[in-house]
Specification:
Helix content: 25-40%
Strand content: 15-25%
Structural class: alpha/beta
Shape: elongated
Order of helices and strands: HEHEHHEEEEHEHEHHHEEEEHHEHEHEHH
Radius of gyration: 24 Å
Number of helices: 15
Largest sheet: 8 strands, mixed
């Protein structure tokens, strides 16, 4: 494979274990902006180190999920290491074997998604571990993996994009890097010499607010103020005026279900890499002094969609009874929404910044909530206030469940 020249930080990531000024360290931490070259240089460096220093040993490579790890690292390794090593993967066993010069090592693949993941790695003996996006993994899993590294000369490799400054990894490893005998390298997009200037500008335009500070500037900052600051600061840039009767494209419904809380439903038209919320239906049982049943909500759905062919209805996954009602009637294809709040907000914010979402001026509740939806600044972790969030939730469901796929929005996938 042909490589562009490596920056000094990328070279350090590749070779720190063999450089006199760095090789005394037990761990490497690379944090900073997206598309800064962290993942490539760290993954290649991890293999170079392990294959040079060991033979017949076991290692671990972990991502938030096995799927994200394969996408971000494993599928790329044969290209990154072309001509240097022979790689073979047993997908059913989540095992990668690498051979070169008479040496062979085994690399077990893990997903560190939640607190239960630590059990996956118990009982192993490892010579080293690589954590791709360690800030997305629970502390229990990471510490269990570190405890497995009992082979002499074993080392730890961490990379991540920043989160809140109260995050356990920032407090326990980045702030204590010297105490942990860890080498800390902070990356920006300027450290990726193969990234063209126009691509850097595109990424810079994709984010705003806390996401810009974290994913472009590479800073561990607190989420504060309005969630969708770009909309709140300049709503006219996102609001569509005029008739929508002749609008053509693919139509979807997104729903945030509520009985006591408001029920929010939006009709979307997707065409030419843009999604338009062309109308909405918002029912607040407290204001109306009457709760509706699932059947009544279903009747509202049928009336709301009259005259449109709806490809999918995306529904709050906690609304099991309403999902069952929709499916029982057999008219609509109903999907459980992906309810990852923070990633959903990030994707929605990126799509707004890219000009791929617009809201018709008739959608008064969505427009109102965009101006009011805020981070909870009293919490130490990233949390949104549970108020003025019902249209915000249904919009997030639609963006993260449908648009990230329909637009092949590769940029929502974080990485080095």
């Amino acid at each position: 494979m042909h490589y562009e020249p490596f920056s000094q930080k990328q070279l350090a990531t590749l070779c720190w274990w063999n450089w006199d000024q760095y090789k005394q360290h037990d761990a490497l931490i690379c944090d900073g902006s997206i598309r800064s070259g962290k993942t490539l240089s760290m993954s290649v460096g991890f293999v170079l180190w392990s294959m040079t220093q060991f033979s017949g040993q076991n290692f671990a490579i972990s991502g938030k999920t096995i799927e994200s790890l394969r996408r971000n690292v494993i599928l790329q390794l044969p290209h990154w290491l072309e001509g240097l090593f022979v790689l073979s993967e047993r997908r059913s066993e989540n095992l990668l074997t690498i051979t070169a010069g008479g040496r062979t090592n085994r690399y077990f693949l893990f997903g560190g998604r939640d607190e239960s993941s630590y059990a996956l790695i118990q009982g192993m003996t490892l010579a080293g571990v690589l954590f791709d996006e360690v800030a997305l993994m629970p502390r229990s899993f990471v510490e269990q993996a570190l405890a497995r590294c009992s082979v002499g000369g074993s080392r730890f490799w961490f990379n991540c994009n920043p989160e809140a400054p109260s995050h356990w990894f920032y407090e326990e490893w980045i702030l204590k890097a010297q105490e942990k005998n860890a080498l800390h390298l902070h990356f920006t997009m300027e450290d990726n010499l193969s990234l063209p200037a126009e691509i850097k500008r595109r990424y810079e335009s994709m984010y705003s607010g806390v996401f810009y500070d974290r994913y472009i500037r590479g800073e561990w900052v607190v989420a504060e103020g309005r969630v969708y600051r770009q909309f709140a600061d300049n709503p006219d840039a996102f609001i569509l005026h005029g008739p929508t009767t002749g609008m053509d494209g693919q139509f979807y419904i997104s729903i945030d279900y509520g009985t006591i809380n408001p029920f929010s439903m939006g009709l979307w038209c997707v065409q030419n890499k843009r999604a338009t919320r062309i109308k909405e239906w918002y029912y607040d049982s407290r204001k109306e002094s009457r709760q509706k049943t699932d059947e009544e909500y279903y009747e509202a759905l049928e009336a709301f969609t009259q005259g449109y062919y709806i490809r999918k209805v995306i529904v709050d996954p906690s609304a099991a009874s309403f999902l069952e009602t929709i499916r029982r009637h057999g008219k609509f294809s109903a999907w459980d929404a992906d309810n990852d709040v923070l990633d959903g907000i990030r994707v929605t914010s990126s799509l707004l910044s890219a000009g791929m979402i617009q809201i018709h001026d008739s959608c008064k509740d969505a427009i109102r909530e965009f101006g009011l939806y805020r981070w909870d600044e009293k919490k130490h972790s990233d949390t949104v206030l549970k108020e003025n969030d019902h249209a915000m939730d249904d919009i997030r469901y639609f963006c993260y469940t449908i648009l990230a796929r329909e637009f092949r929005w590769a940029e929502w996938k974080r990485g080095g």
